Amino acid sequence: MDGAICRGLPKTVQHGSFDGLGRPMLEMDEVLARALIPLLDARRVLYQHFLELDRLVKRAASRDATCLRMMTVPGVGPIAALTFKAAVDNPGRISKAGDRDVRSTHYAAANALLMRKMASSQIKS
To answer: Please, which domain of life does this record's source organism belong to (predicted)?
Structure first.
């Protein structure tokens, strides 16, 4: 890859801004443009679909009382709340007999709660 193009790229790129930064640089080189512009186009479409799915997940969780209550716990977001709601009919203790993905999601939420720096709380204790 042309050294000038590499030097023009920033060290970090915010979500959604890579296309605007990378595309003009790639268009300066015909071979790179031919090879990579279609990939940027596909990446843009995938990112737009991701944003739409993210919006739908957040909306679904925000319209459910159980999910809203669960999301008051630090570390529990819409995905963990919806996963619990969809998989657990009778809430109780998590065992190894249940769905592995549900246990994994709840473990991640609990870990986020325990690792978060905050004043002592009853739930963390």
So the answer is: Bacteria
